[in-house]
Amino acid sequence: MGVSPGIGHGPSYVLTVSVPEPPEGATYTGEAEQEKERAMAALTQVAGELEARGNQAGGEAEEVLKAQALMAEDPGLVVKVRSLIDRGTAAPRAVFEAFTKYRDVLAGSGGYLGERAADVGDIRDRVIALLTGQAMPGLPVAPEEPYVLVARDLAPADTALLSKDDVAAFVTEEGGPTSHTAIMARSMGVPAVVACPGATGIPPGVRVMVDGTSGDVRVQPAESDVADAVGAATARKAALATWTGPGATADGHPVPLLANVGDPAELDAAVAAGAEGVGLFRTEFLFLDRTEPPSAEEQVRAYRAALEAFPGGKVVVRTLDGGADKPLAFLPTPAEPNPALGERGLRRFARFPEVMDAQLSALAAAGASSVMAPMVATAEEAAWFAGQCRDRGLTDVGVMIEIPSAALRAGELLAEVDFVSIGTNDLAQYAFAADRGLGAVSRLQDPWQPALLDLVATTAIAAARAGKPCGVCGEAAADPALACVLAGLGVTTLSMAPSALAAVRAGLAAHTLEQCEAAADAARGRSSAADARAQARAHLPGLARLRL
Ligand code: PEP
Ligand code: MG
């Protein structure tokens, strides 16, 4: 499944996620003291490397990596490793046993602690690799040329340090169109294919070409094929760049095009791509892996940066969407069997009134007006959130429509707030009962599913009746054909990764509102995602002309 358009090619780098387990019962020959020193030196080196990489990366990645560095020298683990060595266990095996036990305890506790289990496993493997002279798991350091990163899946911690200059493309076995890998690849503007079974079997170092539009992944392609594909992609990009100005259909129906950002560092790209504002500022991305709530000053600075990037434009800040795939350490949760169905989003936010007060007050202090809540299920919740915002002087209050109940009763929610924004990523996850990070069910996450289009239509009709804006800020808005369909369904603004803006702007400008409406009707008239896409495209002839 292609999830971030463009052609990327280069040598494959298959992300190693674990090193082999050191044999059970392994012992050492020298002195216990020497073996302990060897283990301590390796732990210190790994902690130092993680910290150094954090310093180099800065920002959010620095927090993630420094927290991991602290874990590598956790006093409890150090004592355990030393005592295993005292009992005759070789250093690599001692590290394996101590860290594995700790990792399993964390994994069993679920919630935020459970999600830290992977970090402990990662430290363990790095230390063992060092002690046994094996290749270090993780990302390559200073590659000679951009590589195609192949992995089973990519977590925020894996990707925190990635540079657009080093990675030519991503290929993962897991994931879907709305998974972390897809969102991150689009925000970096790097081509990506997800849900590609067997990808990690690609031999390391062989040349790979990735087409993030069609989803094709070719191993050892002919040089001429690479040159042709790159030439066509470059020509298309140049053609799209000639369309500029605010988003509108060919007959002048305005559809403001906004940007999704997760970090003030992405604002420059959004401005450069001609975004007319920010439709979704994912504030939780600023604070992933913080153990303490962020300070008021820090929050005000981040929100102000977004407002200043778009003076006069709309900037919609979303309150913290912690939980499930976006754990926040400072909003801890008890173990939940189904975190995606638990206290995430607004539910979690409401449980921590001091954190909520701090964020809403920081937004008011920064001069924000448009604020919206994630994961709202009922009109009652929408009314409560609106009250909290208005009490603090925030005047333009919205809610995301990400839960089918909210879409079905959008009119009641709209009676309480000033606008809605449809999060098609979670709306698909909850409508189809299909985990957005799981490759095996990624076809159910296809935003062309007619049932999802029905939920969008229901919401847009309710918004039109209420005379209030209805945006889409899920990944669906980044597909130029679907963007036309969404406009045809009555969606009033579209928000997407800055890298998707040019294609969506050109696609809309090539069709009238009537064509968009006909495409929307045709898509909803089918019963499968593939048919809906084909039918809609048949009504949107300009897409083929633009090679979209
Ligand atoms: C969505 O669910 O569509 C959305 C935009 O929010 P997120 O992807 O951050 O959950
Ligand atoms: Mg969501």
Give a written overview of the molecule:
This protein is α/β, with parallel strands linked by helices and 548 residues long. The protein has two domains: 17-132, Orthogonal Bundle (Enzyme I, Chain A, domain 2), CATH 1.10.274.10; 251-545, Phosphoenolpyruvate-binding domains (TIM Barrel, Alpha-Beta Barrel). Helices cover 47% and strands 13% of the residues. The protein has 23 helices and 15 strands. The protein has helices spanning 32-57, 59-72, 75-86, 91-109, 111-115, 117-132, 156-159, 180-188, 223-240, 267-272, 296-309, 346-351, 353-366, 379-391, 404-408, 410-414, 424-432, 450-466, 480-489, 501-509, 513-524, 529-538, 542-545, and strands at 2-4, 7-14, 147-151, 167-172, 192-193, 207-211, 217-219, 257-261, 277-282, 314-318, 370-373, 396-401, 419-422, 470-472, 493-496. An eight-stranded parallel β-barrel has the order 8-9-10-11-12-13-14-15, surrounded by five helices. It has a seven-stranded mixed β-sheet with strand order 1-5-4-3-2-6-7. Strand 9 (277-282), helix 11 and strand 10 form a beta-alpha-beta unit. Helix 19 crosses helix 21 (513-524). It is globular and about 80 Å long. The two termini are 16 Å apart.
